[in-house]
């Protein structure tokens, strides 16, 4: 009898989830959800949170070397925003029943990934421009689409994050524009940064749809609203025009406007490089992870103090 009632409750909960999906209503933390949906979100959202946090490293190195006080203030504000994005996303992921400590342990053990892009070095000031323009530009295209993702806390976090990312994209484009209006050396630096960051930025959207194992479920559960290839095409279309305006050349000899598809066709992406980088063997993977582990260990006393404070208040 009891078993039958349990099964009935399960069925009602499932049908609420299905109805919400059908009506495009957000799924909220206390709603019943299939295990696969929860796991899929934990994987993607924690990866997203880790990316924001690890993403502070390449630009962080440039705070003390920014070429003016104005540039320094802007870069500081941007990096601080990325930290904030990481924190919203960790909180949003915690609503799915995983703790922040578990997420960090998964990052440190290599079980959880972070974006391929943050394993490349920022060699000079033009790289800071390229990161803002291309990396934040790619992140926005992806995240605008995620504003309509089915999980409420994730979609709401995306709305705020997108507003801040558009300021980041503009600060990067401003740096590139200034350099392209500068000396021959500055123009060469900007073009060199573009050459190095273009292809890894295209990889940020993930493998082609035909090689993307998670896309099927992501569409079924309305986690993704547009596919990896659709979003990549959108990014290329808008970025090629921006490059032309300031006189940068996209480093792709096969790039052509396709009148029929109304999109640019592009040359082949080096997927061997992508899989190598996300497997932990990119140019800066070790450096990024060692730095995160070191800073995390140094911050242990802050977490202990916060825990002691919480416990004291609970006792009172
Ligand atoms: N990097 O089946 P799919 C930012 C993995 S935020 C590393 O297509 P999915 C802001 C994927 O995890 C940037 N790994 O996967 C900022 C899976 O492996 P798994 C972060 C990648 O999830 C700017 C396997 O490949 N944004 O930059 C990547 O359906 C400047 C198969 O892939 C987000 O995370 C990659 N690029 O689609 C901060 C957005 N792509 O997990 C600081 C949210 C794929 O089975 C400074 N995430 N993989 O071991 C998403 O939209 C999706 O997760 C995708 C991948 C589109 C990234």
Report the uncertain regions.
none
What's the architecture in CATH terms?
A: Up-down Bundle
Q: How large a portion of the residues is in β-strands, by DSSP E? A: under 5%
Q: Share of helix among residues?
A: 55-70%
Number of β-strand runs: 2
Compile the SSE list and pairings.
Layout: H1 2-23, H2 35-54, H3 56-60, H4 69-94, H5 100-109, H6 125-146, H7 152-180, H8 184-203, H9 215-220, H10 228-246, E1 256-258, E2 263-265, H11 271-281, H12 285-298, H13 300-315
Antiparallel strand pairs: 1-2
Helix pairs in contact: 2-4, 4-7, 6-7, 6-8, 6-10
Bound molecules: Phenylacetyl coenzyme A.
The site of Phenylacetyl coenzyme A has 28 residues, from helix 2, helix 6 and helix 9.
Can you describe this structure?
The protein is mostly helical. It has one domain: Ferritin, core subunit, four-helix bundle (Ferritin). Helices cover 70% and strands 2% of the residues. The protein has 13 helices and 2 strands. The protein has helices at 2-23, 35-54, 56-60, 69-94, 100-109, 125-146, 152-180, 184-203, 215-220, 228-246, 271-281, 285-298, 300-315; strands at residues 256-258, 263-265. A two-stranded antiparallel sheet has the order 1-2. Helix 6 (125-146) packs antiparallel against helix 7. The chain is globular and about 75 Å long. The structure holds Phenylacetyl coenzyme A. Residues 43-44, 47-48, 51-52, 55, 82, 113, 115-116, 131, 135-136, 139, 142, 203-207, 212-215, 218, 228, 278 line the site of Phenylacetyl coenzyme A (FAQ).
């Amino acid at each position: 009898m009891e078993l039958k009632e349990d099964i009935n409750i399960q069925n009602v909960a499932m049908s609420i989830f299905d109805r919400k999906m059908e009506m495009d209503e957000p799924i909220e933390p206390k709603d019943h959800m299939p295990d696969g949906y929860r796991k899929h979100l934990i994987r993607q959202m924690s990866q997203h949170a880790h990316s924001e946090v690890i993403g502070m490293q390449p630009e962080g190195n440039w705070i003390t070397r920014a070429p003016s006080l104005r540039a320094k203030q802007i870069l500081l504000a941007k990096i601080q925003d990325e930290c904030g994005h990481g924190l919203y996303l960790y909180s949003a992921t915690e609503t799915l029943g995983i703790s922040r400590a578990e997420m960090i342990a998964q990052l440190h053990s290599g079980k959880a990934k972070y974006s391929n892009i943050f394993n490349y070095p920022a060699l000079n000031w033009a790289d800071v421009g390229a990161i803002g323009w291309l990396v934040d530009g790619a992140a926005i295209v992806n995240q605008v689409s995620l504003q309509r993702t089915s999980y409420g806390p994730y979609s709401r976090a995306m709305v705020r994050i997108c507003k801040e990312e558009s300021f980041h994209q503009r600060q990067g484009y401003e740096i590139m524009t200034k350099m392209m209006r500068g000396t021959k050396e500055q123009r060469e630096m900007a073009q060199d940064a573009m050459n190095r960051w273009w292809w890894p930025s295209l990889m940020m959207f993930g493998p082609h749809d035909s090689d993307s194992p998670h896309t099927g479920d992501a569409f079924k559960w309305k986690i993704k609203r547009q596919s990896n290839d659709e979003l990549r095409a959108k990014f290329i279309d808008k970025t090629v025009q921006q490059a032309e305006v300031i006189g940068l050349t996209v480093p792709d000899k096969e790039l052509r406007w396709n009148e029929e598809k109304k999109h640019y066709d592009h040359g082949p992406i080096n997927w061997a490089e992508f899989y190598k980088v996300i497997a932990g063997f990119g140019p800066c993977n070790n450096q990024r992870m060692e730095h995160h582990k070191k800073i995390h260990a140094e911050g242990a006393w802050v977490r202990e103090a916060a825990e002691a404070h919480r416990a004291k208040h609970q006792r009172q």
